Amino acid sequence: MNLMVTRLFGTDGIRGKVDTSVIDEEQAIENLHLNREISPSLFRLIGEVLGRIYDLFPGQGSEVVIGWDQRPNNKLLAEYLTLGLQISGMKVTHIGICATPTLHYATLDQSARIGCMITASHNPVSESGLKIFDSNGYKTHPDLEDQISELAEHLAKEEREIDLVEHQILTTPNKDLSKSDWAKNHHVSILNERFEQFKNLFGDLPEDHNSRFATPLLLDSSKGFAGEWLAGWINENTGIECIEISKQAEEMNHNCGAGEISPTQSWTFEQASQENHILIKQLKPAEPGTIVAAALDGDGDRCLIIRATSTGFKVVDGDEIADLVVNAGTLFGNEWVLAASIESDLSLLSNLVRFPCKVVPIETAVGDRWLSFALQKHLKDSLDKKTTSPRVIGVEDSGHIVLPSNHPMSEVSWTLVGDGAATLVAFFLASTNHEPKNSMIRGWKKRISAQEVNRDLWDGRNSLSDEVENIAKQRLSALGDLKNWTRSRLNGEPNLMLIQANLGSGELSLGIRNSGTQAKISVSLRLSSEIEIKGMKEVVEDIAQYLKSNMS
């Protein structure tokens, strides 16, 4: 990539505040870089770029599927994305309002070359963005995103005006499914199929399963697409009484949904009653261990669970969900592959001998696409029967769970997708069929971000990185017997400094990385359960403060 070109994409696509003005394209690029603003002009530009380089995507043809979530300006952005795509000769299908996993499924179902989801995930409703998928349903690789960014910058300098008649014609898709229930019906159909696949992996719901769930189970879909149908599906297919509550929210992702909940969060009864979050404040005391609620994020690709405790409520995060899934799955006598990001609980990938079958661990960069990239090769080992599924899972603690799904156009092919609804269904089955004694013993982790910093001053290899490594080594050495210190990097994290070591009989991992979308840098320390946590919070705080002071 030309070093003078700045990448348009962050960790998970393009995101920013929406400005509905139709502006000069060079200005549109500058606004994204300087102000995190996106515009119709930017979406037209990206559409044209995709049409010029579509042959870099796997697959055949020139079909593009576009979907969007409920954000108020997304239809306008879809029109301008369509305009750019059709100017460059692509054929466009609109599926309308949907979840991100719906767009994944639709891209495969429609045999599209490219899938485009217009969303900003769990970000505020005033923002939007773009996630791009290839014909296999996988998100784009950063190398391709760099090419898109570079071509966009060059193309923005060219004069490519069109008249009003052409504009009207080219903003109209070749196929429009958005005015029907196609997206909902298709997602429901896929979930029905996956439910049966999950039963083969984890076993069916036992007769007494209702005793494990609150009546009713509260579901908060963050006022997103799943809020229209998922609670009804659960009632009909699982026998678990479930009600959707996010319709009470003022708007998507505001005081609702998984995006407003921390993976490590807990509340006393009193704290929960005083929360602004519409789900948390409605929780009712229940027998400790009872599952009382579930939350998805706005674009439906994440899921977190809420469990009752003796004093209040606690989040069951992505790490614990994945541990339950592997726990239940290995009881059936099959090897599993478990991929987890560098921000997952360190205990998740350690001590895997606790399971009755072999579990292959993989550690990845942050972002669910890296989970999919790491697991792709393991899909080839699957049995070619629809009633079986590859035994692979990827996880982020935020509730991104990547699981296999049968390819809708092939009975012998599989794909990988993060679907909050499917995660919830897998959790229902696994949580009622696992072996408790095989569960992981949770470690400790602390993540702090230094805000409003100049990210250009950190690359994980420079003198500042060396200074931070020395500070970390000094501070951690004072807390115990430090040995086996290593410093490394990971594919997908160009500025990550990953430090791994043993402290006494336990393991630790320290990761420092720039945000992909905002002016901040995060410091994440993870400890296995054998390590005493006294003084560890201060280590993270001091490193974050040092970075703040030296990167302002």
Question: What does the secondary structure layout of this molecule look like, with pairings?
Answer:
Layout (H helix, E strand, L loop, with lengths): L13 E5 L6 H11 L1 E2 L1 H13 L10 E6 L5 H14 L3 E7 L2 H10 L4 E5 L8 E8 L7 H14 L8 H7 L4 E2 L5 H21 L10 E8 L9 H9 L3 E3 L21 E3 H5 L17 E6 L6 E6 L3 E5 L1 H13 L5 E6 L4 H4 L9 E6 L3 H12 L12 E4 L5 E6 L7 E5 L1 H12 L12 E8 L11 H15 L4 E9 L2 E11 L2 E9 L5 E8 L8 H16 L1
Parallel strand pairs: 1-2, 3-4, 3-5, 4-7, 8-9, 8-11, 14-15, 14-16
Antiparallel strand pairs: 1-6, 5-6, 10-13, 11-12, 12-13, 16-17, 17-18, 19-23, 20-21, 21-22, 22-23
Helix pairs in contact: 2-3, 2-5, 4-7, 7-13, 10-13, 14-15
Low-confidence stretches: 382-387
| Number of discrete domains | 4
Oligomeric status of the shown chains?
single chain
CATH-derived architecture of the largest domain? 3-Layer(aba) Sandwich
Overall spatial form: globular
Number of strands: 23
- Our estimate of the beta-strand percent is 25-35%
Helix content: 25-40%
Largest sheet, spatial ordering of strands:
2-1-6-5-3-4-7
Question: Helix count?
Answer: 15
Radius of gyration computed on alpha carbons: 23 Å
CATH class value of the largest domain: Alpha Beta
| CATH fold naming of the largest domain | Alpha-D-Glucose-1,6-Bisphosphate, Chain A, domain 3
Query: Could you state the CATH homologous superfamily of the largest domain?
Result: Alpha-D-Glucose-1,6-Bisphosphate, subunit A, domain 3
Overall mean pLDDT stands at: 93
Distance between the termini: 27 Å
